[in-house]
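Researcher: Please generate the 3D structure of the following complex. Treat every line as part of one assembly.
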Amino acid sequence: MSSSKSNNAAASEKCLSLDNINPQFIELEYAVRGPLVIRAGQIEKELQQGVKKPFDQVIRANIGDCHAMGQKPITFLRQLLALTMDTTLFDSPDYPEDVKKRARIILDGCQGQSVGSYTDSAGIEVIRRQVADFIAKRDGAPCNYEDIYLTGGASPGIKSILSLVRAKVNGKRPGVMVPIPQYPLYSATISEYAMNRVGYYLNEDKNWSLEIPELERAFNESRKTTEPRALVVINPGNPTGQVLTRENIVDVIKFAHKHKLLLLADEVYQANIYAPNSKFYSFKSVAYEMGSPYREMELCSFMSTSKGYLGECGIRGGYMEVINMCPQVKAMLTKSITASLCSTTAGQVAVSALVYPPEKGEPSYEQYIAEKAAVLDALKERAELVYKTFNSFEGFKVNVVQGAMYAFPQIIIPPKAIAAAKAKNMAPDTFYAFELLESTGICIVSGSGFGQREGTYHFRTTILPQTDQLKIMLDKFQTFHAEFMKKYK
Amino acid sequence: MSSSKSNNAAASEKCLSLDNINPQFIELEYAVRGPLVIRAGQIEKELQQGVKKPFDQVIRANIGDCHAMGQKPITFLRQLLALTMDTTLFDSPDYPEDVKKRARIILDGCQGQSVGSYTDSAGIEVIRRQVADFIAKRDGAPCNYEDIYLTGGASPGIKSILSLVRAKVNGKRPGVMVPIPQYPLYSATISEYAMNRVGYYLNEDKNWSLEIPELERAFNESRKTTEPRALVVINPGNPTGQVLTRENIVDVIKFAHKHKLLLLADEVYQANIYAPNSKFYSFKSVAYEMGSPYREMELCSFMSTSKGYLGECGIRGGYMEVINMCPQVKAMLTKSITASLCSTTAGQVAVSALVYPPEKGEPSYEQYIAEKAAVLDALKERAELVYKTFNSFEGFKVNVVQGAMYAFPQIIIPPKAIAAAKAKNMAPDTFYAFELLESTGICIVSGSGFGQREGTYHFRTTILPQTDQLKIMLDKFQTFHAEFMKKYK
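Model: Done. Output below.
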């Protein structure tokens, strides 16, 4: 009955074969967890089994997985989670009163005062209200809690909105405009839902800026085969690390309005801003300040507890704000979410911790502020370190990491290496990434997983390894790169 | 920027309207959270605002939401969750050593020893191995951990398998055979994925038995328009509460094999067996004992931490076992799951608590066994109480609640009531359920949400209210029903 036995059964006996399953499953790609990462997992097992390698550990710089790279959880958040899970801890003197107060508010908002009950499909009302207060304060603009949906990380929210717009229009497939390079959740979901991806290039030479003529070009060229319905903007950028200026956001909003595109603002890295001249502006606040008709535009914004300074990827917390949607359409969105019952209460509690942290004068405040600052300061330091170090490598071109958690350097791969990649039937950047992995244990994701201009090669690395680890990683990387260049130049 | 303002914006200005969104979103229905439940929520708010009603609370008998109805969580599970969330509790003398041991095993299986890290898309390996051990012991048949996927409740697993088979075959829509009555997750997902539902009737006169001639009828009749690909069996039954005999399962397996249907065994209520002569047999164990070729059949089985004696609906834990699947197809399934990153670690920890509970001699054992027995004994008592009480009502026909958490009585609705329902443009059973809700506060789900034979009327109620509450509910129900019959006879 084991998998291995099943391999022997005649394929013709099977109900399912590659010929008769959902073709979108075959088409879709998700590079952040693709072949490089699978190989990294195998190497880890080989190391455990004592196989000799030129390194003693795999450094997973492929995914924005903060705690996996040694980031410590924020105490306040973990205490809030533990209190809602085990209510006997309300009697413990080790738990501060402000955390107990917040846990009590959440439990009072749960049916039967238990996080073991289903919540409303959009989430626990009191937490949705906390989110609305947080957004209103952030933006200086009103926010209605009924526009907030709590989601298990940002991904399910993004998927539910893309699923909502996936109807054919005038017999044409719906199109979703996404940046190149982009985060592969978008390409994977667009494939899964049989939509068309309409890529617009970010301008690498101007620090991955988002330029309106390029949006127009992409929009117009797509229209022969596609009905563009939605525009995805990732700010701060993933994998590119740029932070949009307010002026840029104004122009993007005007563009979306002109072409009646639903705006999806992926703003999960809004707390991760490092460059001194960069500032986060939410699409909502900018649209609000622009006044009519932009203020009345439909807009979906996504946020997560996996990034920022919490980095709680495994808990799966997040929310989306959906504004100005036609009420009948919004009812359909809500209905589609109810069939999945509700997102995990642990994730909802984490969202509460994100949007309603300890306030000045409360017992948890000092520790909370110190822990938060430590995480953000370290990230800032590493953003600079990664930028400076890579820029010193031969044939590397890197933009400043203004925000988010990644660098996306361009590498000039010599023709001999391109030929060697071709011989292995690999994209040159993937070839480079595999060579790096096998000789140093460093796992990055090649640029082809995110998209890049034809003939250019990149990779994405996170800035998440702890600073001492990161220095070791960059040293190893430097040695590898010098040898790679020597070998293939 | 609030929702209310958006109502005023001209609809033509909107990107999204009912005319251009995903039509499957409009089609889908999910009765367990449908209009009756929405009205119940409004009534709760009205009661809070002081509106006078003939009752002072809403009794939510519409959904299998154990903790919401006062069921207490299992201490062992909640301690395990709290320990993995706040590791300072390892120093607490209030936490038993066996729970600490289990928490340590889980944390050692997490990247960075934190539940805040992403897990493998299929879940934390050590917990998948615990699940495999649990299944092997339950079935007396081998189980490979690589066949186990941890999922956020059973629903995402079911949806991912249905999504896998949703390809058209020979130009015909794929069909999924589901019972009538059925759990609306299936009908909702089949709608969402643009598949065809092939309903087979359970035989109400023989305690909702699953009969092969009826499966054959449904299969054959569907084939003009549909290519049947999968067969869903819910055992113990939801909403019907029956438990399949071993002989019945043998016949179903043979039927699925004969017609090359992928078997989906929804076994989330496997611990909820009440009738003295009923016993749970897993589809896997039966197929294994039948030997070749049934032992090599593809089979997907689903389990959840939301039901059984844990009742942790909000945490979102579950798993699926996928056996004998063609390795290339399984790779596509895994790939499709990776794009959603991973299920919540809280849910994965809950699965660990389900499959690896305290063992005899360990410090938590006695309390765990006592708490588990208390929940299951109370459910058994209520299953009998509901059956006996409803059977005494005029015009009610109820089958024994052998298992699961529901009764699905048939009610004879008098012609005058049917006419009154018609005047309100309502199904007669929905009319009955709304009358019950408005006059007693009891929220049930009408049979039309699950499917029923034309011209028959039913409703589903849970057996979850605490026994004293349940008695009050049944008394109120009896009074209401007598008055309803008097009014409309």
